[in-house]
Prior knowledge:
Elements: E1 4-7, H1 11-24, E2 30-35, H2 38-46, E3 50-54, H3 64-78, E4 82-86, H4 89-102, E5 105-116, E6 119-126, E7 131-136, E8 142-146, E9 161-165, E10 194-198, H5 207-218, E11 221-224, H6 226-230, E12 252-256, H7 262-265, E13 273-277, H8 285-288, E14 291-293, H9 297-307
Parallel strand pairs: 1-2, 1-4, 2-3, 3-9, 4-8, 5-8, 10-11, 10-12, 12-13, 13-14
Antiparallel strand pairs: 5-6, 6-7
Amino acid sequence: MANILIYSEKAALAAELLTAANAIxxxxxxxxxxxxxxxxAGVLSAKGAAVYSVTQDxxxxxxxxxxxxxxxxxxxxxxxxxxxxxxxxxxxLLAGRLAQKMNAGCLMGASSLSxxxxxxxxxRNVLGGAVVAKQVIATSKQVIAVAPKSFAQAENAAGGxxxxxxxxxxxxxxxxxxxxxxxxxxVDISEADIxxxxxxxxxxxxxxxxxxAIAAKLGGAxxxxxxxxxxxxxxxxxxxxxxxxxxxxxxxxILFGISGQVQFYAGIRDARIIASVNNxxxxxxxxxxxxxxxxxxxxxxxxxxxxx
Length: 308
């Protein structure tokens, strides 16, 4: 039985962490901390969480050193030896700093949490996504960063509270300059229920317009493998599916010209149905997909566009 503290500056991710923590609390207390974020505190309390709200003037949330110190002090004051964070970019940076301050063991990218003999068992992708390992932190103090989308967001529930907490973190010199919105792409492929994914087997960039038109008619989104974004520059990196991109769990994933490297498959294997279009009958994806069409991706795209 452990007392668990959860923290993420993003409300949706914090709601996922609340579900994760409740699953392993085993009678221990689950508390949430919100730092300079009254909106997050309100969202989590509406989901039944006991929220401790910290306000520090002049704090920049990008200053992970200062935020880590706040979380470390809050965990100590609240008697929490386990801290659960989100394994997004900011959360990974925070996890390492927090583990050092707490003198705690740390695991990142956990996709599942369970209890076995009173110990928290974390499942994580290792060896480039080729293997799912079950790992346990040996120290009593633990920092666990959970991969986004691994748990559903907690539902609204009664009994939530918000209390002010007075702890501070020494700032480390990070200065806020301004916010510049990311231009151009606003698609979040991790939210798509239908996802069309383009691989290197789609050799003509002109085919992308066809893929996007088909996705629009299906009410879906378009993603890609890493080389299509980083080498060919056909898509922004936010569209990358895989262990170095986004984990996606659509009801239907249609893959065009994708060989099935483990780094990619780790990001799509939880799709309910995977359909692959590939002219290489020996491609790795053939053994991974639910449905396989051994054909040229460009020919299939043209026929799909005609049918829709």
